[in-house]
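Give me the fold.
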Amino acid sequence: MANMAKKNEELEAVETMTDEEATEAVENTADEEVTENTAPVSDDYLEELVEIMLFKDSDKYSDDLVVTLNGKNYQIKRGVKVMVPRKVQLVIEDSMKQAGLAADYEEEAQQQYKELENRL
């Protein structure tokens, strides 16, 4: 709930910003140096083999994981250490991050629903 309040405060701040303030904010942002993720990543780095081990259980995470990247399929066995290109590892990490964020969002939405339901 605190996250929603913070988001609403930020949203209200954006909605009440004048055109001059918005222009100034954009100009100030444009002057700042961007240092994160500006270096190009070489193909050699992305193709480098790295060791990963995917979680395995007897339920949802029992089957091999299939990752499709740029039309190429990688079938990765769970529960054993395997070598995969770094680009595949990065895709898996991003997928896990997104799944975590989705679960957090779902949990927050369920909590909001319960609060609204209790009011009725």
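Residues 6-17 have pLDDT under 50 and may be disordered.
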